[in-house]
Design goal:
- By secondary structure, the protein is α/β, with parallel strands linked by helices.
- Helix content is 34%, strand content 17%.
- Strand 3 and strand 4 form a beta hairpin.
- The protein has 11 helices and 12 strands.
- Helix 6 runs parallel beside helix 8 and helix 9 crosses helix 10.
- It is elongated and about 70 Å long.
- It has 2 domains: 55 residues, Orthogonal Bundle (DNA polymerase, domain 1); 276 residues, Aldolase class I (TIM Barrel).
- The protein binds iron/sulfur cluster (SF4).
- The site of iron/sulfur cluster has 11 residues, from loops.
Length: 356
């Protein structure tokens, strides 16, 4: 397992989304500006969602110019978007170093969710996933993670303000731990995006040490654990990266998370036809969910070009769900949204990136 893996983020400019009120106050103090200027700047950025320093009209022209010269506000360029009929929009963003990542806007009746990435590519290499095919190229910085959520919030286009953020795009958030936690704090902070912790979900393949660390951060975010298989043997086949982590260790770490945050873990389980969707798998999954005291999200697989995995029929997915519920597990079958717009993670990026 690669919990200690260190991947550089590349050279980053001074990005405003990396700043807290304290760090910004200290930087502006060097310009001879009073502390409250930092609050004004952050208010423009997060409340009013301006795209440039020239829009911060209660600051002097000279200060606006100085900010412009010293900071990057929005770094990424949108290079592609695809829309599905159900309103899901997937964006491909290009960062200053030319790398690209995806973020998604998912509208629902009374909410709008941003699904954001934490790395370029993904180190986990799940055998059924597009992002996993190419491995990880680099970590995203905290500012680049926040910027995706701000980008989606900005693009809401009258469709309702952003209410939820899920770290479920490309990458393993807990393998980019410091940047992920810093971004979580900014997205949650009242001076930042002000999204309630309970409306933020971090999805992980399951790194026990990092899950315990996250439990100590005093952030009450929802943890979604991508289990995908109810036994170690099958899980190691589907997720080779998880080779040295047993389900028993994950159960332990999840219990620690639950005990210190009071937040129930969600088990994510991608249903793959004839691989992990049989009644025996459902019965084994009941055992894991009970030990973890978790609820279960079943996800119908989005087929990926070039991979042999198939999506189960609605009937067999329904039977799997039924079996979990009969055993008292709080389980849901997630409708796969945006399938028509390269909905599976990494597909848009793969399609838009020419082969080497
Ligand atoms: S399914 Fe998630 S964790 Fe697995 S390779 Fe794809 S992006 Fe990474």
């Amino acid at each position: 397992m690669m919990e200690a893996e260190r991947i550089t983020t590349g050279t980053q400019p001074d990005h405003l989304f990396d700043h807290t009120p304290e760090t910004l106050r200290s930087t502006l103090a060097d310009y001879g500006e009073p502390g409250y200027r930092a609050d004004q700047v952050l208010e423009w950025v997060y409340r009013h969602q301006v795209r440039g320093f020239d829009e911060m009209t209660n600051l002097s022209k000279a200060l606006r110019q100085r900010l412009e010269d010293s900071f990057v506000l929005y770094e990424a360029e949108e290079v592609h978007q695809s829309r599905s009929p159900d309103g899901v929009v997937k964006y491909l963003l290009r960062w200053a170093d030319g790398e690209t990542t995806e973020c998604v806007s998912i509208p629902a009746d009374d909410r709008r969710t941003a699904c954001i990435s934490t790395q370029v590519g993904c180190p986990v290499q799940c055998s059924f996933c597009a992002s996993g095919k190419e491995g990880v190229r680099r970590n995203l910085s905290s500012s680049q993670i926040v910027e995706q959520a701000m980008f989606v919030a900005h693009r809401a286009e009258g469709a309702g303000r952003l209410t939820n953020v899920v770290f479920m795009g490309m990458g393993e958030p807990l393998a980019n731990y410091a940047a992920t936690v810093s971004a979580l704090r900014t997205i949650n902070a009242s001076w930042g995006m002000d999204i309630g912790a309970r409306k933020i979900t971090v999805s992980t393949i399951g790194l026990p040490t990092q899950i315990r660390r996250l439990a100590e951060e005093r952030l009450q975010v929802t943890l979604a654990l991508s289990l995908h298989a109810p036994t170690d043997e099958l899980r190691r086949r589907l997720i080779p990266w998880a080779e040295s982590v047993s389900i028993a260790e994950l159960v332990e770490a999840a219990r620690v998370y639950f005990d210190s945050t009071g937040r129930e873990i969600t088990l994510e389980y991608v249903l793959l036809a004839d691989v992990n969707d049989q009644p025996e798998h459902a019965r084994q999954l009941v055992g894991v969910a009970r030990r973890m005291r978790s609820n279960v999200n079943l996800i119908l697989y989005n087929p990926v070009d070039g991979l042999d995995y198939r999506r189960p029929s609605d009937r067999s997915a329904g039977a799997f769900l039924q079996l979990l519920r009969e055993k008292g597990i709080n389980a849901h079958l997630r409708t796969s949204r945006g399938l028509e717009v390269d909905g599976a993670c990494g597909q848009l990026r793969r399609r838009m990136t020419p082969p080497p």
